[in-house]
Amino acid sequence: MAAAPSLLILHPRLTTTLRPLSLIYHQFTVHPSPPTRLLVLSARSRHHSSSTSPFASTTPLNSNSNSNATETVRAGRSNSVSSPPLQPPEYAQKIDVNPPKGTRDFPPEEMRLRNWLFHNFREVSELFGFEEVDYPVLESEALYIRKAGEEIRDQLYCFEDKGNRRVALRPELTPSLARLVIQKGKSVPLPIKWFAIGQCWRYERMTRGRRREHYQWNMDIIGVPDVTGEAELISSIVTFFKRIGITAKDVGFKISSRKVLQEVLSLYSVPETSFAKACIIIDKMGKIPMEEIKKELKLVDLSNDAIEDLLQVLSMKSLTELEEKLGGSGEAVRELKNLFSLAETFGYSEWIQFDASVVRGLAYYTGIVFEGFDREGKLRAICGGGRYDRLLSTFGGDDIPACGFGFGDAVIIELLKERQLLPEVPLEVENIVCSLDPDLQGAAATVATHLRGKGQRVDLVLENKPLKWVFKRAARINARRLILVGRSEWEKGMVSVKILSTGEQNEVNLDDLQ
Ligand code: HAM
């Protein structure tokens, strides 16, 4: 049976002997050095043609061959190819080898770390019974036009396609989720519990952990009106943090409800249409001067009294204080209290705190809102989410309650770096298979195919290389076994298997090789 793809993960809080992989995901903080120039040649111009297949022999040779297979030096082949010097084709051009500003390449070591992160996102989502979904990166621009003055609208990568349709690279996943839920209609029973990991694009001012493209892990629950939904979502994020070695001492969640603002604004007869706009303005607190905030709030019909009262409520950090202000019968206080008592039953009370200043910057939230933050205060929000009970109906769907969160890949990597918690995720190919004779290249391919059929990872040496090179490569890929295909063994249907950690070497029949 094929082995499940396992990641060899050496976690700093679980091991003592390993050093953190500090250079990994370096693009999060370090901007690439000045552009290096590369001469691009066509694939054809780089290709050395070969008239015979190196994979000619794929079955054990018959026994009347007289070569000696136990030799440890691979003789008789040379890498030198005498061809005339290549001229760049006419269309060769120099390109900037750096990716566009704010975007990243993922070379293998960074891809391994990304896979490790996504693997944890996936496993946690599945632990909570969520199903994975995905949507196109390119969506209709209309999905993101909400007219509430959100930053995300100005950051949209949007354009007209060749069919004159206005399209945008998705800046978030929630509108796509809403679109798909409406499209599926009643064919999907409620509650829906979906998760997704997708790349999002925002033309953002670059700061630490904020990029022009990032991957977001989302978990959303559609069809649950109660705060049990939010409680479950926060529990899943806590589970994720614990898995990767982050504790309640490192991060916390600030929790509030947009209903707090709604209840304050209703005391001043502020029109319903001003509500989302007021939330977006309040979300800018701390980013722009307070005078500017007040000016903008006045522009959306808030009186001076309403503004002063609102700002006073937004400074509250205790639910008791909030209850004294709003009374205990309103939905805001009731739901928040309920969420905090659910947190106790889940066992994550120490991770959460009430903070009325959290409103979040997206227009569609209607109830509980939360943000994960770094307790040292060095980083921007690690994740954020909340309840958005009216998003589906604003897209023409039924009014179905919904809540969810988005968790980016960039800030969490910064946090892991800060705490020296980046794991080592080494390349690990269990076997390296190498022929000892050019004529046995096909036999080596047979051995590799046999092992891969057993679910073993195999690096097949594809060219004539000295054994010194092969050992070096085996060390680089962390191979456990070196499998040498030599003539005399192969004639008997056998190969030589060397355990690299001990140096122990045995002849093994191909059929018995696991
Ligand atoms: P958001 O707060 O805009 O919410 O983004 C969620 C998370 O994505 C942030 O906390 C951060 O980790 C990451 N993120 C956002 N922008 C960037 C960026 N430019 N660079 C790096 N990371 C970034 C949403 O997007 C909501 N749709 C989340 C949601 C899902 N709400 C309900 N369901």
From TrEMBL:
InterPro entries: aa-tRNA-synth_II, aa-tRNA-synth_II/BPL/LPL, Anticodon-bd, Anticodon-bd_dom_sf, His-tRNA-ligase, HisRS-like_core, HisRS/HisZ. GO terms for molecular function: ATP binding; histidine-tRNA ligase activity. Pfam families: HGTP_anticodon (PF03129), tRNA-synt_His (PF13393). PROSITE patterns: AA_TRNA_LIGASE_II. It comes from the Eukaryota. Keywords: Aminoacyl-tRNA synthetase, ATP-binding, Ligase, Nucleotide-binding, Protein biosynthesis. Its EC number is 6.1.1.21. L-histidine binds at E172, L173, T174, R202, Q216, D220, R360, Y364, Y365. GO terms for cellular component: cytoplasm. Gene3D superfamilies: Anticodon-binding domain, Bira Bifunctional Protein, Domain 2. This is histidine--tRNA ligase.
